[in-house]
Amino acid sequence: MIRWMKIVLAAFVAAFCLLYALQNIVNLGPAYGFVAAMVSMEGHAAYPAHIGPAVQAPFLIWTMLWIIIAAEFAAGALAAKGAWDLFRARHDDAAQFQAAKRFAVLGAGLGVILWFGVFGAIGGAYFQMWQTELGIGPLRDASFFALQLGVVMLILLTPEP
Predict the structure, then answer these.
(1) Do the Cβ atoms of 83 and 102 come closer than 8 Å?
(2) For residue 112, which phi and psi values (nearest 5 degrees)?
(3) What distance lies between CA 80 and its chain's CA centroid?
(4) What are the Cα distances from residue 146, in Å, to 54, 114, 115, 120, 143?
(5) Burial of 6 (0-12, 13-18, 19+ CB in 10 A)
(6) What contacts 24+ positions apart, CB below 8 Å, involve 91-94?
(7) What is the pLDDT of residues 5-59, one digit of tens each?
């Protein structure tokens, strides 16, 4: 049953990341508007001074958005490959099942990097998302997503008996 749990968790990581990527594509205009609003650093009343510049150039904003979407797709694709590899290795010995975890762990890890690193460290700390009503919810959610994916990654990394 533990192997099945790991397979299902890897599949859910894939679905989670791929659905976010697809939602961003379906809502490309609003996604661009959100990223533009966050990187403009406007409306920062609590900490009005910044350690670096805001981003205003549309090319840079589009680049940031496409990096986010590409990372979501990559994390989802890695996790999907990992779920498939785990499914195929479900009857193998412990060492082979352990080796089959590679892509599932990479997918979950990339998700942690995206939602903790990109949204938390860059969006939250550098661009100060927490200072705006528009940004506080997504920043809070990104922290939760990173935590969820990190827990799944740790579960996947537990050695096989």
Answers:
(1) no
(2) -65, -45
(3) 14
(4) 25, 8, 5, 9, 5
(5) buried
(6) 94/159, 94/160, 94/161
(7) 999 999 999 999 999 999 999 999 999 999 999 999 999 989 999 999 999 999 9
